[in-house]
Amino acid sequence: MGSIHDVALENNNVACQPNPLDPEEFRRQSHMMVDFIADYYHNVDKYPVLSQVSPGYLRECLPDSAPNHAEPIEAILQDVRNHIIPGITHWQSPNYYAYFPSSGSIAGFLGEMLSVGFNVVGFNWMSSPAATELETIVMDWLGKILNLPKQFLFSGGGGGVLQGTTCEAILCTVTAARDKVLNKIGRDRIGDLVVYCSDQTHCALKKAAQIAGIHPDNIRALQTRRSDAFGLCPETLRSALADDVSEGLVPLYLCATVGTTSSTAVDPLRGLCEVAAEHDIWVHIDAAYAGSACICPEFRHFIDGVEGANSFSFNAHKWFFTTLDCCCMWVKEPQHLVNALSTNPEYLRNNATESKKVVDYKDWQIALSRRFRSLKLWMVLRSYGVANLRNSIRSHVNMAELFEELVTKDERFEVVVPRNFSMVCFRLRPPLGGLSARDCGLETTNAITKRLLDAVNATGKVFVTHAVVGGVYLIRFAVGSPLTEERHVRSAWMVVREQAEALLAEFKVHPVMQEQADAVLTQAVHG
Amino acid sequence: MGSIHDVALENNNVACQPNPLDPEEFRRQSHMMVDFIADYYHNVDKYPVLSQVSPGYLRECLPDSAPNHAEPIEAILQDVRNHIIPGITHWQSPNYYAYFPSSGSIAGFLGEMLSVGFNVVGFNWMSSPAATELETIVMDWLGKILNLPKQFLFSGGGGGVLQGTTCEAILCTVTAARDKVLNKIGRDRIGDLVVYCSDQTHCALKKAAQIAGIHPDNIRALQTRRSDAFGLCPETLRSALADDVSEGLVPLYLCATVGTTSSTAVDPLRGLCEVAAEHDIWVHIDAAYAGSACICPEFRHFIDGVEGANSFSFNAHKWFFTTLDCCCMWVKEPQHLVNALSTNPEYLRNNATESKKVVDYKDWQIALSRRFRSLKLWMVLRSYGVANLRNSIRSHVNMAELFEELVTKDERFEVVVPRNFSMVCFRLRPPLGGLSARDCGLETTNAITKRLLDAVNATGKVFVTHAVVGGVYLIRFAVGSPLTEERHVRSAWMVVREQAEALLAEFKVHPVMQEQADAVLTQAVHG
Question: What GO cellular-component annotations does this UniProt entry give (chains A, B) (predicted)?
Answer without folding.
Answer: cytoplasm
